[in-house]
Write a structure and sequence with these properties.
It contains 2 helices and 4 strands. It has 70 residues and is an alpha+beta fold. A hairpin with a 5-residue loop joins strand 2 and strand 3 (34-36). This is Ferredoxin. It holds the Pfam family Fer4_15.
């Protein structure tokens, strides 16, 4: 099992809080919307930071989803 970061594009308003909290996973485009750096899999060592970004997203546009790994 692995965690993946999910971005709800309909809820996001491009404030950039998430990229400040987990810059290892997210960049911003020119309008301030998050862009995954290399996929949305969350390494174990970054899981606490990802949970914090999810909790602090002002639009609740981020979530963590557990997916089965093969």
């Amino acid at each position: 099992m692995a965690d993946q970061l999910h971005i709800d594009w309909t809820a996001c308003r491009g404030r950039g809080v998430c990229s400040e909290l987990i810059p290892e996973l997210l960049d911003l485009d020119e309008w301030g919307y998050p862009l995954p750096r290399a996929g949305l899999d969350v390494p174990r060592e970054l899981a606490p930071h990802a949970r914090r970004a999810v909790a602090q997203c002002p639009r609740l546009a981020l979530s963590l989803q557990t997916v089965a790994t093969s």
